[in-house]
Design a protein that fits this description.
Layout: H1 2-21, H2 30-36, H3 41-44, H4 63-74, H5 81-88, H6 93-104, H7 119-128, H8 139-142, H9 162-174, H10 184-189, H11 194-205
Helix pairs in contact: 2-6, 4-5, 4-6, 7-11, 9-11
Length: 209
């Protein structure tokens, strides 16, 4: 069963990587992005390192992932009462590229697991999955140190707030968030318990690149 789950995951990742590799690489101007980021700073911090654990850290996230998420908010493929309106207020697609470049080039501050009692369980899930439930290892997509896969638009998860990461896993599980490629995150999250999601979120918070 574990081999079948991993084989299916590898095939899906390969197809996603191939499709994205054929796209023209789009690069923004980080300096222009910084000038555009004033309205984002209230939630995400001046440099993309948010202080509120309910709002994601953007610093050090890949440009490709940030572009996808902002574009999805602008096109209502991903919805949030605050972010949808903020993204739609961005004047142009070019400005999206600039904002993504700014945050991608900002230095991320290291995170820290707060509930260390469940970190070991989180590490087991992150690195080995949950075989009996058919949940693949998180590291297969997000990398052993949580750096993500920019080509496939899989996000960096190392150092991310555990509160935010848990909330996203719960949204994937309920289907309220549905902008994941091939339903990969929804299929994994729906097989996980709340306790398991909490554990892996705590572990990712303390991961180092």
């Amino acid at each position: 069963m574990k081999k079948l789950v991993m084989l299916a995951l590898v095939i899906t990742i390969g197809l996603a990587s191939f499709a994205n590799a054929s796209e023209e690489k789009k690069m923004g101007d980080a300096d222009k992005g910084k000038a555009l980021s004033a309205s984002c700073a209230a939630c995400h911090g001046a440099d993309g390192n948010s202080s509120n654990p309910e709002w994601p850290k953007l610093a050090g996230q890949s440009e490709s992932y940030l572009i996808k998420q902002l574009t999805d908010y602008r096109n209502d493929k991903r919805k949030n009462a605050v972010m949808s309106s903020m993204a739609k207020a961005i004047k142009s697609d070019e400005d999206v590229l600039h904002l993504a470049a700014f945050y991608a080039n900002s230095e991320a501050k290291e995170g820290q697991a707060k509930n260390k009692d469940i970190v070991s369980e989180g590490e087991s899930i992150y690195r080995g999955g949950i075989v009996e439930a058919g949940v693949a290892a998180c590291s297969a997509c997000h990398g052993p140190t949580g750096k993500g896969n920019p080509t496939a638009k899989f996000p960096k998860v190392s150092g991310q707030h555990a509160t935010y990461a848990l909330a996203q896993l719960q949204l994937f599980k309920s289907g309220e968030r549905n902008n994941d490629t091939g339903k990969m995150m929804r299929n994994m999250a729906k097989k996980m318990s709340t306790a398991q999601m909490e554990a892996v979120s705590e572990y990712m918070a303390g991961l180092r690149d």
